Structure formats: C-alpha cells, structure tokens
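Please check our next protein.
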Amino acid sequence: MNMRFRGGVVAAAMLLAEVNAAEAHIVASRLGDFYAGALHPLTDLQDIILWGATGVLAGSLGAAKGRWLVLAFPLGLLAGLVLGQSFGVASVWATVDAAMILVLGALLAAATRIPTGLLCALAFALAMIRGAANASDLGPETDRLLFAAGLACAGYAAITLAMALALAFRGPDSSPSITWQKIALRAFGGWIAAIGLMMVGFGLAS
C-alpha cells in the first residue's frame, strides 16, 4: 500500500510539474467584435433584467405603444455607447440601474397606463445608461463600429422578443376583462420591483 501511495504521489507531482499557466479568454472575442457587442450584455445580470422588464412592460401596454421601442431602444444603446466612450462611466450607474429596475417593476405591477411618449423616453434613457455601461469594457483594439452594431442588434432582438412574448401571453388589446394572464404579468412586475428594491439597498449599503 505504501509503495502504491508513493507511486501515486510521484505521478501526481510529475503531472503538476508539467502544467502550464492557463489563459482565460472571453468566448465572444473569438467570434469577432460584432458578436462581442451582441453577447456582452448577456454577461451582466442588470442588462438581462432591465432589457427583459422593459420589453414586458411595453408588451403589457399593447402593440400600439410598444412598437415605438423597437426603434427607440437600439438608438438609446448607441447614444449611450458614444457617451460612455467620450466621458467614461460613473460609479453611480449600479445604483441607478437598481432604481430603474424598481421603477419598471412598480409600473408593471400597478398596470399603469403610461403615455407613448413617456414610455419611449423611459426606454431611451434606460438604454443610454446600459449602452454607457457596456462601453466600459471596450478595449483599444476593439472595432467600435462592429461592437456598436452588435449591441444595437442585440437590443433590437431582445426588446422585440420580450414585447412579442408579453403580447402573446397577455392576449388581445380589445379584451377589457381582467384575466389570469394580466394578473400574472402584474405579479411578475412585483417580483421585478422586489429585486430592484433589494439591489437599491445593497447599492446604498456598499
């Protein structure tokens, strides 16, 4: 037993001695700058929550109001990306993102009938904040144009799919009755608001 144990230790030591240093790479960087811009928001939980909540909120208000976000949201991401590159990203963004999650969740939970202009302004401001946050990880070798195109396409796809799912789940706009689908959307908004409230608390405490 002692000989086998010593042999195992020697073999393990030889294997460890031959191990080289591992180098980590971002998966998206292997696919090019366009896909780096498109996939980068998936690495941030705040992007996933905010983009999804914005799409669901727009979808809960109906197709007539939500369709304007298909244009406003990607443009906001591009504007935020440009501003983030020019002026940098402030450390207050984390708290602002948490507050935006809280606001979106509260609006969805309360089933507030937001005017179309206000909805577009809210989505554009949120997209600008997240576009600026995504600009913080741009490297000097990154193709800015391809990264921006990927980010805008990802924003377009995410907001469109989230709105379409919410619209399909909610049912036709002509139905004035309160259905279980509308109640479920409001409950979903309550969970989003709770997540935002916790994130605001953590942000203020840190």
Q: What stands out?
A: Residues 69 and 120 are 6 Å apart (CA to CA). The chain has nine helices and no strands.
